[in-house]
């Protein structure tokens, strides 16, 4: 019975990651990743801070409704290269993109992780939707 429950739970994550793999394949084959990196760099106008904000917005938008791993993989193809081209170290760029993909799971309007956590805690999901601001979010 435990194996069956674990398989059902894993199936949701596997399906989401498979869909993200298809999307990444399409992004790579069509060259959209390079175009998107160029767009972020163009709107960032050489400013690392502005490019970080654009990359974070990209993570929020593309990460809606996906598990963190799938969101990170998708955005790592599109936003991390823009940060790396501006001189941000590779590890720092990927950690920033991963953190932004992680936060997209608790950010409205989708906030899947907030609803899942509220279900586990048997709390009202609407009260847990917006996390209180923490100083480390701005770091």
Automatic annotation (TrEMBL):
Pfam families: DctM
Record InterPro entries: DctM
Domain TRAP C4-dicarboxylate transport system permease DctM subunit: residue ranges: 6-125
Record-annotated membrane-spanning stretches: 12-33, 39-63, 70-92, 98-121
Keywords attached to this entry: Membrane, Transmembrane, Transmembrane helix
The keyword Transmembrane helix is annotated on this UniProt entry: yes
Full protein name: TRAP C4-dicarboxylate transport system permease DctM subunit domain-containing protein
């Amino acid at each position: 019975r435990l194996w069956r429950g674990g398989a059902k739970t894993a199936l949701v994550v596997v399906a989401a990651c498979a869909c993200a793999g298809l999307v990444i394949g399409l992004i790579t084959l069509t060259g959209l990743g390079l175009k998107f990196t160029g767009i972020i760099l163009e709107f960032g106008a050489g400013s690392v801070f502005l490019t970080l904000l654009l990359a974070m917005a990209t993570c929020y938008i593309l990460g809606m409704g996906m598990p963190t791993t799938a969101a990170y993989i998708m955005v790592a193809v599109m936003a991390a290269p823009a940060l790396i081209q501006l001189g941000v170290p590779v590890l720092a760029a990927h950690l920033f993109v991963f953190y932004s993909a992680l936060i997209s799971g608790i950010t409205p309007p989708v906030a899947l992780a907030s609803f899942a956590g509220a279900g586990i805690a048997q709390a009202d999901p609407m009260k847990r939707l917006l996390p209180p601001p923490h100083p480390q979010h701005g770091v």
